[in-house]
Amino acid sequence: MRRAILLSLVGIAVGAGAASGQTPSEYRQEPWTTCEKAGSEGAVAACTSIIQNPKTKAVDLVPAHVLRGRAFSVKRQTDNALRDFGEALRLNPRYLMAYESRGRFLLNLGQYDRALQDFDLALEIRPNFIPALMGRSEIFWRQGDFARGLREADAIVKVDPRYAPGYSARC
Q1: Do 115 and 106 meet the contact criterion of CB atoms below 8 Å apart?
Q2: What is the DSSP letter of 28?
Q3: N or C: which end of the chain has fewer CB within 10 A?
Q4: Other CB atoms within 10 Å distance of the CB of residue 157
Q5: Are the CB atoms for 151 and 129 separated by under 8 Å?
Q6: Following DSSP, what letter does each residue of 139-166 receive, concatenated?
Q7: CA nearest to 149, candidates 116, 125, 123
Q8: Helix and strand element counts for the chain (H, E)
Q9: What distance in Å separates the CA atoms of residue 95 and residue 125, rounded to the nearest whole number?
């Protein structure tokens, strides 16, 4: 009985969140679920609807731009992806996932120096940010600088010995 009452209250709270126009910082629903799937057909449109919605809170514009940038990157729309990552960083210059996403995109384009700059900026904000360490390691391996690649991989393992990709970055 208690569980049924609790579930009913949760349902009411969730329904109230949706009706009040709350954005993802408080309540996740469509179009966010589509926006978060970078490879999906409707991701760009869903993210754009969030960005253009006057009810979207400023704090939610940053992840919406990052997610749309990722969606553009999957579509290989380089200029659009870079524009969105840049806008996210303009809105919040300390947003780690924007640096990580843009750095990863640049790395995959073979623009290693620019990617390294983004990973370094992320590490200035959070020195043990594993995605940035992974990106740096991958860049050094791709450039044939195996000693630096190994140092970065070792740093990952020091930060989190349970993080399996840190070990595979050592190969």
Answers
A1: yes
A2: -
A3: N
A4: 17
A5: no
A6: HHHHTT-HHHHHHHHHHHHHH-TT-HHH
A7: 116
A8: 10, 0
A9: 9
DSSP string, 100-147: HHHHHHHHHHT-HHHHHHHHHHHHHHSTT-HHHHHHHHHHHHHTT-HH
Contact partners, residue 37, CB within 8 Å, separation at least 6: 43
Distance CA 37, CA 110 (A): 24
CA 143 to mean position of chain CA atoms: 25
Provide the 10 A C-beta neighbour count for residue 143.
13
Question: CB under 8 Å to 133, separation ≥6 — which residues?
Answer: 119, 123, 152, 155, 156, 159
The token pair that represents 166 in the structure block: 């840190």
66 near 85, Cβ under 8 Å? yes
pLDDT (tens place) for every residue of the chain, 171 residues total: 333 333 332 333 333 333 334 444 444 688 898 888 878 789 999 999 999 999 999 899 999 999 999 999 999 999 999 999 999 999 999 999 999 999 999 999 999 999 999 999 999 999 999 999 999 999 999 999 999 999 998 998 899 888 777 777 676
d(C-alpha 73, C-alpha 108), whole Å: 10
